[in-house]
Structure formats: structure tokens, C-alpha cells
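Internal tracking record. Fields below are filled automatically when a chain is submitted to the structure queue. Please do not edit lines marked as system-generated. If the sequence contains nonstandard residues, flag them in the REMARKS field before resubmitting.
Queue: standard
Priority: normal
Entity type: single polypeptide chain
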Amino acid sequence: MVGTRISEEIEKLSRLKRYAVGDTIQAEGENSDIVGQVVSGILKLSKTLPDGRQHIVDLCNVGDFFGELGEDTNPFSIESATAVTLCCVNRKAFLELVERHREFEHILLGKTIDDLARARNRLLLFGCHTTMERMATYLLLQLFTHRAAPPPDRSQPRENIAACPISRRDLASYLGTSVETISRNIQMLSRQGILRIIDSAHFEVLDQRRLLARSGYSELDLLAVTRRQRAGEERTPPARYPAGYRDAVAAQPRAPAPTVRLAPANTAMLEPRPVARAAPK
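SYSTEM-GENERATED OUTPUT FOLLOWS
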């Protein structure tokens, strides 16, 4: 996305860092001293409420930019929801780089617009909906983006596998509900024959049409959201980045984007039924 000269400067400023699950990269209220990009894994941005509850504001996936450029302190806590590899740059040095190369501002502006669109889509998808609709929507988004590793009992990932790489507690916070409600909804979908529970993080979708009905959205609505996310993940990393960057990206399990196959419609429901007419008096 950037020219060779800017790429070389980023290479000198960047460092690859790896964090285990649950590590804090930057705490809420601390000085914002690093920015960067997610190479592998998932970051969570969370806010602690006055009563001590923690709410996940957003999730940063592979290719997403993290860190604050416009504020000196972090308004949110940045933690690793899974094991992550990050490409980190000192915030002050990064801002100086942007000051020297004004064309780089256009790239950051485009990224900001993408983040704003993603936030609006999340409000649309998860706001003012029941917990079952939110759960079904999340499973479908994971199914369509297909960004997770294959389940442990499969040698190859399958098109109908939806994965939840984050913990149940994080998922409940992200969807604005409780762990118990998440588990209850998953068990209900399983009893109804809509999905099969492989393990705590992988689910086989048995009836995609009924899962779509539970979400309250159409297939086209959800695919329109995931198209932007998949495009961001498939960007080729710059030719020059910190040592090991490209190897770390290449090591991540990649599966082809799933082909959405819906079961044939029940045509019997569409056939006109004879109307009983009363006999003339």
C-alpha cells in the first residue's frame, strides 16, 4: 500500500511482538505509546464500567490497525483475545513518519473510513436484536469469513464449519449478553438440528437456511458485511517489513472463502391451495 521509501522507513521502526492469551498490550488510561497491525490472532478493545464490568467494544483481526493516533492516552484497554503476533511501531515515531510523508495520510484516512463502516455494520447487526439473533448472526459471519483454523477432528476445514476463536466470556461481552445465555442458545440450536457442536469453539452448520431465519437477516446482507473484511485479510503484506513478518503471515491457516450453498426451497409451500367454496343456496 505504500511506496518503497516509506516501506523501508517502516521496516526500521517496526518490531514483531508475540503475546499469549489474556496479555495486556496497553491498559485503559495509560499513555498511548505504540501503534501497529495484527499479523495473527485477535485483539480485543474493552472498556471497564464504573461498577467493574468489562465490555468489549471491538475485535481486531488479521490486518487490522490498532492503537490511538489522535489521543495521548488509551480510551480502551487492548488485550489479546487469542495468542497474537503484532507488528508494533512507536507512536511518536509513526506520527513523525506521517508528517514527513503526507501521502501516507490518505492510507490512514482510508483505514479510518473502513473502521467507521465496520463499527456501523456492527451496530446494525447486533443492536436492538434478541440474544438468539445476535448469536446466529455471529455464527453466520464466522461461517462466511472462514478465518479460523480447522477443527481438531478434521484434516481439512469444511465449508460448513463456523468457529468461535475467542472465549465464551469474551463472546458474551462482545454480543452484550451472558455466558449462560450464549450456552443456552447454542444448545437450543443444536437440539433443533440447526448446528452440531464439535467442541467448545467449532460448530457444524447443518441447516444454513434456518440459521439465517434465526438471525433476522438475508444472506446478501451478511455477505455484504463480510466482503469488506475478507478483502482486508487478503491484502498482500508489503515487500519490506520486520524480519519474520511474511513468514508469520504465511504460517497462518488459510482456507478458501466458502461457497454459500442453501438447501432447495420447499416448493410445496409455494403451490396454490384450492379454495373451498360454499354451495349456492
